[in-house]
Design goal:
There is one protein chain. The chain has helices at 9-19, 38-52, 62-70, 84-90, 126-141, 143-150, 157-160, 163-166, 175-181, 191-207, 212-227; strands at 26-27, 32-33, 109-111, 182-184. By secondary structure, the chain is mainly α. The chain has a two-stranded antiparallel sheet. It is globular and about 55 Å long.
C-alpha cells in the first residue's frame, strides 16, 4: 500500500523510479528541468499500473495507508524509516523491513535530511550564538541516540556503524539505504513549492484519470517558470 492521496509518498516513489533509470528530473545546479522525459513518463505510467491492477488503494492518504498495514489489510507498505520503531511497538504481528525496491538499472531511493538553522539576528549576541552552536554540536554528536530511538538513519558514519545502531530492530535490513542507495531530493530554495506542484500533478493521473503526458508537459512548463 502507498499513500497516494494528499501525501508526498507517491511523489517520492516517482522520483526514485526516475533516478533508478539513471536520469534526473531537475538538475539543481543548472536548474535544468526534465519532468516530461521518457524516464519520468515510464515512472508515472508504472505507478498508474499499480493502481489499475489493484496493488494499492489510490484514495489512501498517509493515515489510511498506515492503518491498512497495521491492521494486516495490506501485505506491504511503502513508507519511510521514521515508522520502524512505532510499528515495532504497535503492530499485532511480526513484520520485516527492507531497502526500497530497485526496479531499474540503478540503485537509488528518495531521501532528505533534517537540518538545523540559526537565524541571523538584528542585534548579534556572541554568547547566545555560541550557546546555539554548542547545542547543535551536541545534537550532532548524539545523532546515533536519535536514530536508535526513532528508526531514522543516523547522519554520521560513526553512529551508523555503532553496535547500538546495528543491534536496534530492523536497522541492518535497510542499512544499504543509509550507505549506498539514498539520493537526496533537489537542493533548491523553491523546492517545497515545486514538490507540492509535482505531487498535485501526478496524483491527478490516478485520482482523476488525467493523461500522463499532458500532466508532465504542464508540470514542465510550470516548474521552468518557477525556476526563472
Amino acid at each position: 500500500d502507498i499513500a497516494l492521496s494528499k501525501d508526498p509518498m507517491g511523489e517520492r516513489l516517482w522520483m526514485s523510479l526516475i533516478w533508478q533509470q539513471g536520469e534526473e528530473f531537475i538538475d539543481a545546479k543548472t536548474k535544468t528541468v526534465k519532468v516530461n522525459s521518457e524516464a519520468s513518463k515510464t515512472a508515472l505510467k508504472f505507478m498508474n499500473e499499480l493502481v489499475k491492477k489493484g496493488y494499492t488503494t489510490p484514495t489512501h492518504d498517509y493515515d489510511a495507508s498506515q492503518q491498512a498495514f497495521m491492521k494486516g489489510e495490506s501485505a506491504i507498505m511503502y513508507n519511510g524509516v521514521w515508522a520502524v520503531d512505532q510499528y515495532t511497538k504497535e503492530v499485532p504481528f511480526h513484520y520485516e523491513t527492507t531497502n526500497a525496491p530497485m526496479l531499474f538499472s540503478k540503485k537509488f531511493t528518495w531521501a532528505n535530511s533534517h537540518t538545523w538553522a540559526i537565524p541571523v539576528q538584528a542585534n548579534n549576541d556572541p554568547v547566545k550564538y555560541r550557546a546555539a552552536l554548542e547545542f547543535v554540536k551536541f545534537l550532532y554528536g548524539h545523532t546515533g541516540d536519535w536514530a536508535v530511538a526513532t528508526g531514522h538513519m543516523a547522519s554520521t558514519k560513526t553512529a551508523l556503524t555503532s553496535d547500538a545502531y546495528k543491534n536496534a530492530p530492523h536497522r541492518v535490513q535497510y542499512f544499504d539505504t543509509a550507505t549506498k542507495y539514498a539520493h537526496m531530493q533537489p537542493r533548491l530554495a523553491k523546492w517545497p513549492a515545486i514538490g507540492d506542484k509535482i505531487q498535485e500533478g501526478i496524483e491527478a493521473t490516478w485520482l482523476n484519470n488525467e493523461p500522463v503526458d499532458s500532466v508532465l508537459n504542464n508540470l514542465q512548463t510550470d516548474i521552468e517558470g518557477m525556476l526563472k
